[in-house]
Amino acid sequence: MNELAGTGRHWVLGITGASGSIYGIRLAEELLNEGFSVHLVVSNAGWRVLKEEMDFDASGREAELERRFGGRAGRLIYHPVADIGASIASGSFRAEGMIVAPCSMGTLSSIAHGSSDNLMTRAADVMLKEGRPLVLVPRETPLHAIHLENMLKLSRLGVKMVPAMPAFYHRPGTLAEAVDFLVGKVLDSVGIGHNLFKRWGEET
Length: 204
What we know:
By secondary structure, the protein is an alpha/beta fold. The chain has helices at residues 21-33, 44-54, 61-69, 105-112, 119-130, 145-156, 175-189, and strands at 10-15, 37-42, 75-80, 97-103, 134-138, 160-161. The protein has a six-stranded parallel sheet with strand order 3-2-1-4-5-6, with helices on both faces. Residues 1-7 have low confidence and may be disordered.
């Protein structure tokens, strides 16, 4: 999982310490299955949540990621959150865009205020300055006025907000189906095809 150089089909994926790390994991799986290179950044709190919610081994991070994601069509490139010199910190690296799923309110606030104090927030800042797609999946409830103001600010800058709010009209029978609906909506928002859920009006 070494650094990839040059151009190509690259997506940046951030996982923060908000609950709902399964969303980021399923997004990584789907992007890799579609043949994209996925540049993964996980915050320190994100690793804690991955351990608590999904039994990730945070002590051997790269080995754990290889075990979970190896053997797919695409390639996973892991960047430590403190590595501010990574490729994705530069606008000259031609990523297709960035998704942060789940996105904590702290990370969302840092992005909204241009506080590029780690690789995740710097990569998001790059997407904004280069005019590339940036999608955030906020996962918090209830929301107070500061949360909402930060989301509005980013929305006005063209950032897509896809809150972790699964629908039920497709009648999910399992938690995995509810997760896949949300992941599918994220992929829809950036124009990536999928078959993760039945769309309204589709035949069974």
